[in-house]
Amino acid sequence: MATLTIDGDTLRVGLSSWENFGALASSFSVPLARIAAVEAVDNPWSVVRGMRVGTGFPWLILLGTMVRFGSTPNDFVAIYRRRPAVVVTLRPQASFGRLIVTVPDAAAFAETLRRAAKIDAHGISAAPAERPPSL
Predict the structure, then answer these.
(1) Alpha carbons 75 and 87: distance in angstroms, whole number
(2) Do the beta carbons of residue 93 and residue 34 sit within 8 Å?
């Protein structure tokens, strides 16, 4: 199962070798400053949007990128069965729009991630937004 780990000021998404193959992607990380909102959902299948690039069997597994056309950014998904998941909404400068990942205790991890990213349950940041580098 994919893992979410908070490592200092970074959220790491860890994938096993089989998940790398199935998701057509590898493990990656996102700075906590790029997190806009975090929520736990009981049914992650209900929030998935787009066309899958990766592996999917309905209600069993969904791994990879959900391509969303137009100006909406793509989502990364690692969903297993009908288990709860964490939905991490990222700021526009991130490589994905959302991360939707099944984790053992989604509600507790969502709260821990909110505290680490210094945002409240409504996505309001207590820390200043990350600024782009000056030229």
Answers:
(1) 10
(2) yes
Q: Encode burial over 88-116: b for 16+ CB neighbours within 10 A, e otherwise.
A: bbbbeebebbbbbbbbeebeebbeebbeb
For residue 22, give its domain range. 3-117
The pTM for the full model equals 0.87
**pLDDT on residue 125:** 61
- Dmax over Cα atoms in the chain, in whole Å? 47
Position 108 in a domain: yes
pLDDT in tens, 108-122: 999 999 999 998 766
Q: Is residue 130 part of a domain?
A: no
Residue 131 covered by a domain = no
Q: What is the number of structural domains in the chain? A: 1
As a whole number of angstroms, the distance between CA 117 and CA 31 comes to: 9
Contact 22, 64 (CB under 8 A): yes
Is residue 17 in a domain? yes
